[in-house]
Amino acid sequence: ALGAQVIEKHFTLRRTWPGDDHYLSVDPQQLATLVKNIRVVEKALGSADLGVLDVEAKARQYARRSVVAKVDIPKGSIITRDMLTMKRPGTGISPMEIDKVIGSRASQDIPEDTALTWDMLQ
């Protein structure tokens, strides 16, 4: 199972020895193969670090979206949902934070089609 810290396997020097466990156990060569295959799986699973590589950063920024002014928003206006849309690139406020944007006040005139940033809001 993913995340296992210990694997238990019965071991014997000869699987042909009499007794209940020997025929179900691994011999030295089978144990070496088991360990080798576990190491292959560890490499295949990779790291839990899912950070963005430098070569991916630009493409990721373009692929993401920002909250954008759908209309001209005058300074001092209370921002409503119908004033906003989402567009690429992802250089402004993330759409995941739109609830924080709605109800805030424009600290400056925001032209139509401008990606919003936090310094534009009060």
Give me some keywords for this one:
3 helices, alpha+beta, 122 residues, 7% strand, rod-shaped, Type Iii Antifreeze Protein Isoform Hplc 12
Side by side, the strands of the main sheet go 1-2
Largest beta-sheet details = 2 strands, antiparallel
Structural class computed from helices and strand pairing? alpha+beta
Taking all Cα atoms into account, the compactness measure Rg is: 29 Å
Compute the separation of the termini in Å: 50 Å
Number of domains: 2
Question: By CATH's scheme, which homologous superfamily of the largest domain applies?
Answer: Antifreeze-like/N-acetylneuraminic acid synthase C-terminal domain
CATH class category label of the largest domain: Alpha Beta
Helix content bin:
25-40%
Count of individual helical segments: 3
Compressed to H and E, one letter per element, the order equals: HHEEH
Which residues sit in consecutive blocks of at least 5 with pLDDT less than 50? Answer: none
Mean pLDDT: 92
The global form is rod-shaped
Please name the CATH topology of the largest domain.
Answer: Type Iii Antifreeze Protein Isoform Hplc 12
